Amino acid sequence: MKRILSAFLAAGLVMGGLTVKAEAATNDTFGISVSIQNTLSISLKDTAGADYTTWAITPAVALNTPTTMSSSNGIKVVTLTSFPVDLNAAAGTSTGGGAWIAGAVAGSGVYKLELKAFATPQATPDLTVGSTTILGTPVSYDLIVSGDRWVYAKLTTPTATTTGQTQTISVTITATVH
To answer: Rounded to whole angstroms, how far apart are CA atoms 49 and 45?
Structure first.
């Protein structure tokens, strides 16, 4: 009996020694998840500040001829945002009969369009280095960290065409938060 009592006493001490007391926490944390509204808009302006509509290349040019915008044809891309943005562009199929398409190089029924953005208006836009070829799907060609951009284009006409009619090419410029 003495042994049983000793065993119960030993078991009680062991169990009592294993008792863990839970202490109350003195601090705790929580998280905050917030998204900033991406207010972003762009507008295209001409050198006089009016809405930009059309770059009319005149007089008529020969086939396979590159034509670069002059300083007076520049497009001011006005951005209204507090975020860095990527400028993207896509060129469409021409209208006017013959349906020219955008390509990486000029070819039969294929025109080449290049764009380049500058921080300031250019007296003589140089698109020989650093320009981006614009195709039928959006292509990113500039990152704006702040301020507006002046965009200039160079169009190389096709090497051959099935029509002598005036062609109109729609170019869409978009901005996306970087």
So the answer is: 5
